[in-house]
Amino acid sequence: MPSFVTDLTCSRCRRRHEPRAPQNRCSCGSPLLVDYDLEAVGAAVTKEALAPRPLDMWRYRELLPLDEADDVVSLGEGGTPLLRPYDLGARIGLRRLLVKDDGLNPTGTFKARGASCGISMARALGIAEVALPSAGNAGAAWACYGAAGGIKVHVAMPRDAPAVNQLECRLYGADLTLVDGLISDAGKLIARRMAEHGWFDVSTLKEPYRLEGKKTLGLEIAEQLGWRSPDAIVYPAGGGVGIIGIWRAFDQLSSLGWLEGPPPRLIVTQAEGCAPLVKAFAEGKDASEYWEGAATIAPGLRVPHAVGDFLVLRAVRETGGTAVAVSDDAIREAMSLFGRESGISAAPEGAATLAAAIALRESGELGADDEVVLVNTGSALKYLDQRAPP
Q: Which residues have C-beta within 8 Å of that of residue 90, sequence separation ≥ 6?
């Protein structure tokens, strides 16, 4: 399982960092991105050669950072279906609607992808203990994969995070601390404890490998469409790592010559009660401001400030996408609509993409014949306190 990684490159100042040593952020404070020798990747494997491989995210191993197969910590993540719910599409006026249902991953969310890659690299680098703040699902996923990989995980999350997420952390043996406040408050607490105990920081975009796992979402969508792009992908952004990963996935596929046509338009959706990225996009800014009083029924979207905001905004603008905020009522209705019309169990974050698609179709931003992929990031079964509208 040879690695084709060349460098870890700062997303702002472009300074290069050693990829075979534990790294967090650049000295300038910005996230590090994993770079590959794509010419060597193209010489080593063809897209056709991937076909007989197992249907999990590690089928794309040449575009992932591991050197040794023995370091991979996998529970079967990835390989989730790209569904075509005809009745739902017809109802909302999008005849070519698709849903990437990542709620079928281990731990019931797409967070399994990032946790698998992050824990695998921690193991490869000899890291024994990791720590992160979480709105809920990321902490649960890292706890799960940490248990599978023999790495101790420390999590801080809001006290009102979903009870299922709290149960998962305890079930998998993580050290869980609940805080009064938001994920930003959990981040402050975990930062103090990391400084005291020397735990490795795996917070969002404070290590480079969670993003690489999330990137496989884009690789899978392209392969499932016969190595071409849809017209648009709608993604629910809290920290926004997934949309950055999808953006980089399609860019790498284009560089390899594996992608037919241009990359898709990338569309971000957030909740009206916490929409810093949407506000920054509308105002033409390159970075977002801290969102005071963040409140929404979608815990994963209750992120008042995204560390990688400038990368999310760049991804949206470079692909000709847009950003839209939706109400909690629209999210509730979309959860119910997903279930009634397609049998898809959608988390509130995933349901936000359907609410956004409805709004964008009504405004004319999306056309009736556009092929649109909605990313459902989790299962509704993880949100037992939610009540569907009658």
A: none
Residue whose token pair is 């609509």: 337
Number of separate domains in the chain? 1
Q: Which residue has the tokens 């960092």?
A: 17
| Selection from 289, 284, 274 nearest residue 352 by Cα | 274
131 located within any domain:
no
Structural domain includes residue 309: yes
Going by C-beta distance under 8 Å and a sequence separation of 6 or more, which residues neighbour residue 78? 55, 56, 57, 58, 59, 105, 113, 216, 220
CA pair distance 227, 212, nearest whole angstrom: 19
At 380, list the tokens.
């509704």
177 domain-assigned: no
- Please state, in angstroms and rounded to a whole number, the distance separating the CA atoms of residues 321 and 22: 34
Using CA atoms, how far residue 301 sits from 5, 57, 273, 328, 389, in Å, is: 32, 25, 9, 11, 20
Exposure string of 341-379, with b = 16+ CB inside 10 Å and e = fewer, is bbebbbbbbbbbbbbbbbbbbeeebbbeebbbbbbbbbb
Residue 237 vs residues 39, 74, 178, 271: alpha-carbon distances, Å: 32, 25, 23, 9
- Beta-carbon contacts of 188 under 8 Å, excluding residues fewer than 6 positions away, are none
**3-state SS class at 263:** coil
pLDDT tens digits, residue range 332-374?
A: 999 999 999 999 999 999 999 999 999 999 999 999 999 999 9
Domain extent at residue 227: 82-108+213-382
CA angle centred on 109, ends 45 and 326, rounded to 5°: 110
For residue 370, tell me if it sits in a domain. Answer: yes
For residue 359, give the CATH number of its domain.
3.40.50.1100
Q: Which tens digit of pLDDT belongs to each residue from 80-132?
A: 999 999 999 999 999 999 999 999 999 999 999 999 999 999 999 999 999 99
